[in-house]
Amino acid sequence: MKIKKLCDDAEVILISCAAAEVIVDPLAKWVFKTPQKDNDAVIRIFEVMKKKGISKIAVIASNTGFGDAGKKQIEELAPKHNLTIVLSETYDKNARDFNDLLNKIKASGAQGIINWSIEPAQSIIPQNMKQLKINIPLFYSHGFGNINYVKAAEGAAEGIIFPCGRLLVADLLPDSNKQKKVLLEYKKQYEAQFKEDASTFGGHAWDALMILVTAIEKSGSVDKYKIREKIETIKDFVGTGGIFNLSPTDHNGLQKDAFEMLIVKNDKFTIYKD
Amino acid sequence: MDFSYYFQYFLSGLTNGSTYIIVAIGFNIIYNSTGIINFAQGEFLMLGAMTTVSYLKFMPLALAIICAVFTTMLIGFLIDLLFIRTLHKPTVLKMIIITIGLSIIIQELALHIWDEKVKTLPYFTGSLDTTIKIFNAYISPQVLWVLGSSIFIIIILNLFFKYSLIGKAMRACAVNKEVARLCGINTKNIISLSFIISSGIGAFAGCVITPLSQVQYNCGTPIAIKGFTVAILGGLGNNNGAIIAGIFLGIIESFSILFLPLAYKEAIATIILLIILICKPSGFLGKKELQSLKEF
């Protein structure tokens, strides 16, 4: 957050690849960001929960910046969506054993669990749940967008639902989807270059760079004042994170539909359908 | 709330507690022969588990564990041979600093050998899905392995210290090193042996808990802190005290979640450690008179 003020004061364009909401809210004239907003992720989870008839939820998060920010958003937004939080806990980011926590959740009467973290905990929690025979739907954050967590859970991750950019399921999208072509192209290039599975995180950087390139092409000069103005006028830009519609009041340009709800099926990510 | 709900906490407390006990006994064995706390004790658990993960590629699980235990024992022996035995004037402070340094070096080496990824071992019996139902509480069969191994280690060690000549010699060393030496006991060899035994049981404990808790290059220190608390709580050097203290700490931690936010769970051991150091530094079963004779 220090760099936000620094760039704004020095009038240097910053297109951030970090997720936090505070980067573009409150708005800074020179600061943009490409990843989807975490409150949109929360809203998408709530929508699925409501369709499943869930009204009482348990929230758990790791003691990291990512976990704290997500937990705060959930606690703020839950009352507006008529959801009751029956249990809210923070666990240590190095925790390896969640039996006690899950036992408490079991007794709390929660109908759904949201876990917000990026740690190996994401693989251990479903394992512990299986052992304790707890069958409560498990929802994760977009921090789960790495297939290695599913592999580490050794089959226990089956059925976990989470919001994520479409990159991970690019080949499963219908051909009518505007993003499909861009995503497949990005995936192909990335995997040829770096010899590893593409993840959403590299996509954010690609989006940032391409937005800048588009703005430079549009303004036909490298004058930073002109480029900054042009970025604000970019509409219908198809990136890996979603379709960007930037404006002077929205420096992210993504809506909640930039997230697709995914589910783990047969140890693979696939698109969640009601 | 019914009985099974509390019973589930009780079982989980017992499992964690028995892990702490094994680590605490590792501390005690070395403390008794050298008078120091071996801060690399947690690393023995990590090494045991990690080497098992590596051996597993070439051999079945049981054999891999046995080989890993012997490998770790060898490392324990080498540590004594290279760093403790060679000291000209071994003071408590010097040796403690050496073990802290060793703990850091072992972690760094493990990071380079096994990288930073979290690894795990297969369940000894059954799989992830296998659970045993006791009074409506569910536990993994691995929990029984942990409990069983702890009891096994404790019984074997007790027999060893009570009836074997070497065990008696180690106890003599613990009581008074000078007099033990006068009786013809080679204290240097006893120290080597204590490093070998405590690294061995540490490695075995590491293997048994890994299917439940997984293993990473830096996972030794947090377990060592818990084990250290238990060792102090039970009275340093006193294995029976460690058993009581381990079960006590494990169960307190488990049940704490009923009253306190989970975030405080890790702090409980430290708080208990502070209270005991201020109020009764000799621990549950430690004797005050004995304590005053020790350097540390």
Task: Tell me what the structure shows.
The complex is a heterodimer of chains A (274) and B (296). Chain A has helices spanning 2-10, 38-51, 65-77, 99-108, 121-132, 147-152, 180-194, 200-219, 224-231; strands at 14-16, 31-33, 56-62, 84-91, 112-116, 138-140, 161-164, 237-238, 243-244, 260-265, 268-271. Chain A has 274 residues and is of the alpha/beta class. Chain A folds into two domains: 4-36 and 179-258, 3-Layer(aba) Sandwich (Rossmann fold), CATH 3.40.50; 39-164, Response regulator (Rossmann fold, 3-Layer(aba) Sandwich), CATH 3.40.50.2300. Chain A has a four-stranded parallel β-sheet with strand order 4-3-5-6. A three-stranded antiparallel β-sheet of chain A has the order 7-10-11. Chain A has a two-stranded parallel sheet with strand order 1-2. In chain A, helix 2 (38-51) crosses helix 3 and helix 8 (200-219) crosses helix 9 (224-231). The longest helix of chain A is centred in the C-terminal third of the chain and has 20 residues, at 200-219. The model of chain A has no long low-confidence stretch (mean pLDDT 87). With 296 residues, chain B is an all-alpha fold. Chain B has one domain. Helix content of chain B is 73%, strand content 2%. In chain B, strands 1-2 form a two-stranded antiparallel ribbon. In chain B, helix 2 crosses helix 8 (187-213) and helix 9 (220-234) crosses helix 10. The interface between A and B is medium-sized, with 27 and 28 residues.
Please state the overall shape of chain B, judged from the principal axes of the Cα atoms. globular
Integer-rounded radius of gyration of chain A: 19 Å
Bin the strand percentage of chain B: under 5%
- Total tally of structural domains of chain A: 2
Note the quaternary state here.
Answer: heterodimer
Profile the largest sheet of chain B: 2 strands, antiparallel
Architecture of the largest domain in chain A in CATH? 3-Layer(aba) Sandwich
Low-confidence stretches of chain A: none
Beta-strand content bin of chain A? 15-25%
User: Using DSSP, what is the number of strands of chain A?
Assistant: 11
Query: Helical residue percent of chain A?
Result: 25-40%
Task: Give, in order, the helices and strands of chain A.
Answer: HEEHEHEHEHEHEHHHEEEE
Number of helices of chain A: 9
Low-pLDDT parts of chain B are none
Helical residue percent band of chain B: over 70%
